[in-house]
Amino acid sequence: MVKKAVCLISGGLDSSVTSFIAKERGFDIYALSFTYGQRHEKETLCAKKIAKTVGAKDHVVLDVDLGKFGGSSLVDRSSGSIPIHDMNDIGNKIPSTYVPARNTVFLSLALAYAETIDADAIFIGINAVDYSGYPDCRPIYIEAYQKMANLATKKGVEGKPIKIEAPLLHLTKSEIIQKGKDLNAPFENTWSCYRGEKIACGQCDSCLLRLKGFKDAGVKDPLKYETLPEWYRK
Amino acid sequence: MVKKAVCLISGGLDSSVTSFIAKERGFDIYALSFTYGQRHEKETLCAKKIAKTVGAKDHVVLDVDLGKFGGSSLVDRSSGSIPIHDMNDIGNKIPSTYVPARNTVFLSLALAYAETIDADAIFIGINAVDYSGYPDCRPIYIEAYQKMANLATKKGVEGKPIKIEAPLLHLTKSEIIQKGKDLNAPFENTWSCYRGEKIACGQCDSCLLRLKGFKDAGVKDPLKYETLPEWYRK
Question: What is the ipTM of this complex?
Answer without folding.
Answer: 0.89
